[in-house]
Amino acid sequence: MARPDGKMDGMSALKEKLKADLTASLKSRDEVRLRTIRMALAAVNVEEVAGKEARQLSDDEIIKVLTKEAKKRREAAEAFGNAGRAEQAEAELAEQAVLEEYLPAQLSDEELQGLVEEAVAETGASGPQAMGQVMKALNPKVAGRAEGGRVAAAVRARLSR
After folding, report:
1. Domain with 55 in it
2. Does residue 146 sit in the same domain as residue 67?
3. At 2, phi and psi to the nearest 5?
4. pLDDT of res. 5
5. Residues 17 and 79 in one domain
6. Does the residue 67 lie in any domain?
7. For the chain, how many structural domains are there in total?
8. For residue 8, what are the β-bridge partners?
9. How far apart are CA 73 and CA 95, in angstroms?
10. C-alpha dist (Å) from residue 86 to 70, 82, 89, 125, 128
11. Contact in structure between 112 and 50 (CB atoms under 8 Å)
12. Do 116 and 57 have their domain in common?
């Protein structure tokens, strides 16, 4: 439902920023940003209408969608690079860079190790069988600041010591 000022009721700040940036990139004729933000908003809209009833996504949910899209770009760039298609790989990496502007800063390896140590101490976990327990404690703290595979690898390495 639109308000008199043109904004949508309940629209997250991140989605509003994406829409404003879409307009700005359209005016500046920045093709890469335009294409990427359009794709990101489409992915958000798909997520909003998925399920039994349509709803507005929160900023955290939008960050999850954007993280997933950035991961797709990174994987596609890798695949194109391995297939000797450097131009397509560069295009995917350019889109990934635009998406990452909207994501929280990624954790350094040291910061991730520190969080893993905290989660292991918190849960009293030992041995690889306790991985799920540690991941459950760690995921809310990491939330979009490190890729799941990277987090899992750090936990696995710590538990196998």
Report:
1. 13-100
2. no
3. -85, 140
4. 45
5. yes
6. yes
7. 2
8. 2
9. 7
10. 18, 9, 5, 44, 39
11. no
12. no
Phi, psi dihedral angles at 93 (to 5 degrees): -65, -35
134 phi and psi angles, rounded to 5 deg: -70, -45
Residue 6 in any domain: the answer is no
Of 76, 72, 16, 75, the residue nearest 41 (C-alpha):
16
Q: Is the pTM of this model over 0.90?
A: no
User: In angstroms, rounded to a whole number, what is the distance separating the alpha carbons of residues 60 and 45?
Assistant: 15
pLDDT in tens, 95-154: 999 999 998 888 888 999 999 888 888 888 777 788 888 888 888 888 778 888 888 888
Paired tokens of 64 = 């999850």
Q: What is the dihedral of CA 107, 109, 111, 112, to 10 degrees?
A: 80
CATH number of the domain encompassing residue 145: 1.10.10.410
Which tokens hold the place of 51?
A: 């399920």
Assess whether 71 and 92 both reside in one domain.
yes
For residue 124 the two structure tokens come to 């009293």
Q: Are residues 17 and 93 in the same domain?
A: yes
